[in-house]
Amino acid sequence: MALHRKLPVLADRLGPDIAIVPECANEEILRRKGGRALPEVSMVWKGRLKDKGLAVFGFGDYEVSLAECYDDRLEWVLPIAVTGPVNFALLAVWASNHRARIQHPDHVGVPQPASALTVYEDWIRNQTTVLAGDFNHNCVWDKPGQVERNHAETVAAASRAGMVSIYHEWFDESQGHESKPTIYWRNRTLDGPAYHIDYIFIPERWSHSVSDMHVGGFDEWVGSGLSDHVPVLMEVCLSGPEPTG
User: Which helix (H) or strand (E) covers residue 156, if one does?
Assistant: First the structure.
């Protein structure tokens, strides 16, 4: 929320090429409230409320655009074409899971990120694809007998699509046993409830080209009042443009 105050901080401190930002106002509000302080960005936004939706930003030489195949029955997963020094497909996530107002009729009860990998299968088949954002889920909440609803289904669907969670690869931790929270929920304190619910799934062949994987610290992002989430940042160094389909 209130990204018009925070986007310059995000741009200066993190220097991203691509940023996925849930709970974000639309571009008209950002520009009106942020004015000249906002960096120049390419932006895709979708949401029910003009001051609270899902945004994807492209900085510098990167441009983002909504793919023509966008299916609004998957309310909070956006298929994004990323073009620039490296071209790739991005499925940007703000998963409300069972709270989503609209769900694809063929995937009721299935986590939306897992559904997206099926719904957009034709679009991503011949493209390098990243699945990333706020999944609002973790394997610690998985329940026996509710396989389709469990976060493990998203992990399995990503694996079938040739993707790995780079956090778990980088830090050699297993799903459900993450040592670094990405959200300090409810009271935003170090000793309050904290969970790992934000992920970046990348093509397995990219994993050898990742040069840094970083989860932001509490003091800088939460203690300072910027957010209840900390950023999850990945740097990947590729030799040339990826092919697009």
Answer: helix 151-160
